[in-house]
Structure formats: structure tokens, C-alpha cells
Design brief:
The chain is mainly α. Helix content is 53%, strand content 8%. The chain starts with a helix and ends in a 7-residue tail after the last helix.
């Protein structure tokens, strides 16, 4: 499907006969209020272009894309995870005199 080539975050579900934004479905804050493309499949093919463009412009979509990217980088690069762990260990709590 052309839409999934142009929008790699868009995944089709043959079983549910519709499309989801995988980033928003997994990482958007307050998914319960989002609806089509996030919690239920979008299957109105005649309106795909308008809905996909509008979805891509939503702030929650942009935020979810950043979280998804960070998640993938962390999973794909164990050294990144180790570096963050070491950085957290090196931070010492402030003491009051």
C-alpha cells in the first residue's frame, strides 16, 4: 500500500481490516481519547489522505514519534543503555549543610 511506504509509522492490520499509527498506538499519552489510527483501526479508504495528513500534524503524534525513536535507539544500541545507566550512577544527590 502506498500510504505505508510514505508513512512508515502507518501499519495495516488485515485481521482488523484497517490501519494504525504504531507509534501512537504504543506511545501516545492518553490513548483512550484518540480513536481512529490509535485505539481503533482506520478503514475509510476514501478518506485516507486527509486523515493521515491531519494525524501526522497532531502534537501527540509528534511526541509519540520522538518516544518511539528513543525506544528503538535504546533497544538497538545496548551501549546507549549502558551509558545512560552509568550517567545516572555518577549523579550524586545534593546534601544540605
Amino acid at each position: 500500500m502506498e500510504y505505508t511506504r510514505n508513512h512508515p509509522w502507518l501499519k495495516c492490520s488485515p485481521r482488523l481490516d484497517g490501519a494504525f499509527c504504531v507509534s501512537c498506538a504504543l506511545f501516545a499519552a492518553d490513548r483512550s481519547s484518540k480513536g481512529a489510527l490509535v485505539t481503533i483501526p482506520f478503514n475509510k479508504r476514501a478518506r485516507y489522505t486527509n486523515v493521515i495528513v491531519a494525524h501526522a500534524e497532531k502534537q501527540y503524534h509528534r511526541d509519540a514519534m520522538l518516544v518511539a525513536k528513543a525506544f528503538c535507539e535504546t533497544m538497538e544500541n545496548p551501549a546507549y543503555r549502558e551509558g545512560e545507566r552509568n550517567q545516572r550512577k555518577s549523579i550524586t544527590p545534593a546534601t544540605h549543610s
